[in-house]
Amino acid sequence: MYSYPQLAEHARAILTVSPSITLDIVSRRLGVDRHTLNAAVWTVENTSFRSFRYAIIMAKASAMLSAEPGLSRKDLAARLNISPRSLARALAHASSVGINGPRTSG
């Protein structure tokens, strides 16, 4: 049985290699219920699995763009092995949440 920190770390490792896979697939690979994995990510990372996945996608995208600044979104998505739509969602999520958490008005 995994501890929550171990589950979150294993999920990070899986998503780093295959960022396009879902919570259900990651939980099946780890042999745990999807709710258990989601709770582990929430407890350890203080965020939802979706936001956790998007953060991993954005970290990989940032590294790729640093190495190759002229890379198009379509090429970037292909190299990340995700759909352009998934990349667009990750970008939108990153811009709405930012590195300091959700934006607030005022």
Roughly what is the average pLDDT, rounded to an integer? 88
- Secondary-structure content class: mainly alpha
Looking at how many chains there are and whether they match, the oligomeric state comes to single chain
Number of helices: 6
Number of domains: 1
Order of helices and strands: HHHHHH
Topology diagram in text:
Blueprint: H1 4-17, H2 23-30, H3 34-45, H4 49-67, H5 73-80, H6 84-97
Short description:
The protein has six helices and no strands. It has 106 residues and is mainly α.
Keywords:
106 residues, disordered C terminus
Structure in words:
By secondary structure, this protein is mostly helical. It has one domain (4-97). It has helices at 4-17, 23-30, 34-45, 49-67, 73-80, 84-97. The longest helix is centred in the middle third of the chain and has 19 residues, at 49-67. Residues 98-106 have low confidence and may be disordered.
